[in-house]
Specification:
single chain, 458 residues, mainly beta, 5-stranded antiparallel sheet, 4-stranded antiparallel sheet, 39 strands, disordered N terminus
Length: 458
């Protein structure tokens, strides 16, 4: 019987404040030099600490992978194809890619041997417009068998879906939004909720909450210069909280707490330059999110900003003063592994690869307002694999415990075991080392106790 004690320090970050130049997070370190051999819009896909893929994007036909943490980068055999614009490694051997629409068609590719050989999944004829290319590919964290890919061809958006881990894909027409092009920022929470950013005016995204039957255009309430690229977009698993950023939003990002209906500007205190807009990542099961910075009026924040309270406050990570044009992250257990491509601030182009290993802190106080009563919420997502979030509220300064039990009633984990102030908290439970099945979690104080059921599916 395994017992885990995550008696961790609470993070009490509620009010918005300007970014501090003091770096309190893990450092990004050089993990290979790709100077001159990746293009102006590269994409990154992370499998684990040691394995990652980088593709040139738009104008350079070069795709690379590392299996030893960036010590060596191997160029993959893609020379017979058009330039890869998008890439997603579902695992170490199953890799998906889409090209830039050259040669009169947009093509969707798959490799089942880590990029050694490729087959074409589908091909969409196009006239060769500059916006005709494959955009992004993502799989759901809560349901890894479900994935979305999308491309823009001439005047139409095409949505690909898979429900069997990428073995087969179906193609349908996506939303037609007059005055906008698709720009990136694909988010896939589950088979019903997915969203991506748009290029146009005003800055906007498009969201579906019914699996693509209907689509909703949502302004993200950011400053505009007439044509804005909303490449930055990241939603939490609750489908309510999200962040967005654009190519012209300067010192602002935007944040929603009601699923994209309304957005509030967050002033991060410095003018940030991203000629395509920032790339954003939300770490599942946490309030941690990251965004890229190409370069800035304040050089100390070049690279990556990190928030630990759902986008309210941001702090610079150490990146040796290098700006980032793209990045990707992968959570495994209590660590986040990230890889990023640097950007030349004068003539944007990929230069070097950097990587980071960032530890996750387990308990977050998300509100210090005194609630009306004690509550223990249903975990989300549920079912989950392997990470879920449990939210609870305390009305006074109380000693609280939050414990996990298996179906036989055996205690298998202790997530909280400390005195806490009044407020609302979130804690992550990582089931990586547990078997599939039904579990129970119990919140207990001196005068309150409640138990709920959750299901781990691997």
């Amino acid at each position: 019987m395994k017992k885990i004690n995550l008696n961790l320090k609470m993070i009490l970050l509620i009010s918005v404040f300007f970014i501090s130049s003091k770096n309190i997070y893990s450092q990004w370190i050089i993990a290979g030099d790709l100077a001159g051999i990746v293009g102006s819009r590269p994409q990154v896909s992370v499998v684990d600490e040691n394995t990652a893929y980088v593709t040139g994007g738009l104008d350079i036909n070069a795709t690379y992978k590392t299996t030893n943490g960036g010590t060596d980068w191997i160029q993959l055999n893609t020379g017979a194809f058009q330039v890869f614009y998008a890439i997603l490694a579902k695992d170490a051997v199953n890799v998906f890619a889409g090209d830039n629409g050259g040669g009169g068609a947009i093509r969707f590719y798959k490799s089942t041997n880590g990029g050694s050989t490729w087959t074409i999944i589908d091909s969409i004829p196009v006239a060769g417009a500059s916006t005709s290319n494959f955009k992004q590919i993502k799989f759901s964290i809560s349901n890894p068998n479900f994935g979305i890919a999308y491309a823009e061809g001439d005047s139409a958006v095409y949505i690909y879906k898979t429900r069997n881990g990428g073995n087969t894909w179906t193609r349908t027409l996506g939303p037609t939004i007059t005055g906008y092009n698709a720009s990136g920022g694909l988010n896939v929470i589950d088979s019903l909720f997915f969203a991506f950013g748009l290029a146009g005016n005003p800055p906007a995204i498009v969201i579906t909450t019914d699996g693509g039957i209907t689509w909703n255009l949502r302004s993200v309430n950011l400053p505009s210069v007439g044509f804005d690229i909303t490449r930055g977009l990241a939603f939490k698993e609750d489908k309510l909280t999200g962040i967005a950023g654009t190519s012209s939003s300067d010192q602002f990002i935007s944040r929603t707490s009601n699923g994209g209906l309304n957005w509030v500007n967050i002033d991060i205190g410095n003018t940030i330059i991203n000629f395509l807009g920032p790339v954003m990542r939300w770490i599942e099961g946490t309030n941690i999110c990251y965004l890229t910075v190409s370069y800035s009026t304040t050089s100390v924040i070049n690279g990556v900003l990190k928030s630990t309270n759902g986008g309210l406050n941001w702090t610079a990570m150490t990146t040796s003063g290098l700006g980032f044009i793209n990045m990707d992250t992968k959570r495994i257990g209590s660590n986040v592994y990230g890889y990023a491509i640097t950007d030349d601030p004068i003539a944007p182009s990929g230069q070097q690869v950097l990587k980071v290993t960032d530890a996750i802190v387990g308990i977050y106080q998300i509100s210090e307002l005194v609630p009306d009563g004690y509550t223990l919420s249903q975990n989300y997502p549920n079912p989950f694999n392997p990470v879920t979030v449990i939210r609870y509220s305390l009305i006074g300064n109380r000693f609280a415990t939050l414990k996990i039990y298996d179906i036989l009633g055996n205690e298998v984990a202790t997530l909280v075991n400390e005195k806490q102030n009044a407020g609302t908290y979130e804690v992550n439970f990582d089931g990586s080392n547990f078997s599939s099945g039904v579990y129970f979690y119990t919140l207990q104080t001196d005068n309150f106790s409640e138990t709920k059921k959750m299901t781990l599916i691997k």
